[in-house]
């Protein structure tokens, strides 16, 4: 069952008694989420397994219960409840779980993570605690996504997957940094560093969209970079910092306006919930973006 859903591995239960397990799978856009609850076990992704398995995605794992470790020829990564770690299906490793565990795995196509992080190899031999900060946000979001996946339509799945990838990339990047900001970026090379930072900043913006005081200065300060450098990072993405903030706010406001369960909220209520502090300004921006005023969006949703 693991081979069919995650990757081909050699499995050896750590006890000779009856082995129990439970596997639950969800598909969210390009992401495959698999939660495994099992007794103590050792899983080995050997060179033989890799040669006979064409799948080469990355796996991001959230360890939810129990303890274990991931072993490479030159490193050992501890896994405890609440830690995030990354695996590469193209590389051999051994995963040991010394007791019953629950782990939530996300299989991610390589391009989706490498666009955000650059060289994925930098993030393999470490785990990231999700006790606080962006890693906590990422882990809580991942758990919620796994639970709510059956209720998402196709468009919502792709939007949710993009947010999940941004948060996971930001958490992995934060865990890999000894120091943040431009000094760290100077040690990376070219487009990879900019893509990683852009992913992290986008995740930060999406988490703070409801703050009406969210601005370029605050975003730059949160990432210990200059405002000028922030604009430089965004320049290659084809949208300005302010444009990205407005677009994300508009998308969320539109979704709430056409949500039948939120019809008790006024247009002004929804605008303020998504960081706008001026209702006429929101209406003008909304009409410029969608071609009709906010109330028309509700009328169209009812028809």
Write structural notes for this entry:
Helix 3 (110-117) crosses helix 7 and helix 4 packs antiparallel against helix 5. By secondary structure, the protein is of the alpha+beta class. The chain contains 13 helices and eleven strands. The chain has a six-stranded antiparallel β-sheet. Strands 1-4-9-6-7 form a five-stranded antiparallel β-sheet. It is 46% helix and 21% strand.
Task: Draw up the topology in text.
Elements: H1 2-5, E1 10-13, E2 21-28, E3 31-38, E4 41-45, H2 47-51, E5 58-65, E6 68-72, E7 75-79, E8 83-88, E9 93-97, E10 101-108, H3 110-117, E11 127-129, H4 133-148, H5 154-176, H6 182-186, H7 190-207, H8 216-222, H9 227-235, H10 241-257, H11 267-273, H12 279-290, H13 294-302
Antiparallel strand pairs: 1-4, 2-3, 3-10, 4-9, 5-8, 5-10, 6-7, 6-9, 8-11
Helix pairs in contact: 3-5, 3-7, 4-5, 5-7
């Amino acid at each position: 069952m693991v081979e069919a859903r995650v990757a081909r591995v050699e499995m050896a239960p750590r006890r000779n008694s009856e082995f129990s397990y439970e596997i639950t799978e969800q598909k969210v856009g390009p992401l495959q989420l698999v939660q495994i609850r099992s007794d103590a076990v050792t899983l080995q992704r050997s060179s033989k397994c890799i040669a006979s398995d064409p799948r080469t995605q990355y796996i991001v794992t959230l360890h939810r219960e129990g303890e274990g470790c991931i072993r490479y020829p030159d490193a050992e990564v501890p896994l405890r409840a609440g830690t995030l770690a990354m695996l590469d299906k193209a590389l051999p490793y051994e995963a040991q779980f010394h007791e019953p565990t629950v782990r939530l795995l996300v299989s991610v196509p390589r391009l989706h993570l490498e666009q955000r992080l650059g060289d994925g190899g930098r993030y393999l031999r470490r785990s990231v605690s999700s006790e606080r900060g962006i890693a906590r946000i990422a882990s809580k979001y991942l758990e919620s996504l796994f639970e709510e996946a059956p209720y998402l339509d196709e468009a919502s799945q792709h939007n949710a997957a993009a947010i999940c990838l941004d948060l996971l990339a930001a958490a992995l990047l934060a865990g890999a940094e000894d120091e943040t900001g431009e000094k760290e970026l100077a040690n990376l090379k070219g487009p990879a560093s900019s893509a990683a930072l852009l992913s992290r900043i986008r995740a930060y913006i999406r988490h703070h969209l409801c703050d009406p005081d969210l601005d370029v200065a605050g975003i730059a300060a949160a990432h210990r970079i200059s405002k000028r450098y922030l604009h430089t990072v965004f320049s290659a993405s084809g949208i300005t910092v302010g444009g990205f903030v407005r677009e994300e706010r508009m998308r969320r406001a539109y979704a709430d306006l056409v949500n039948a369960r939120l019809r008790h909220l006024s247009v002004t209520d929804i605008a303020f919930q998504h960081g706008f502090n001026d209702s006429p300004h929101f209406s003008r921006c909304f009409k410029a973006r969608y071609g009709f005023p906010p109330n028309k969006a509700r009328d169209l949703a009812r028809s």
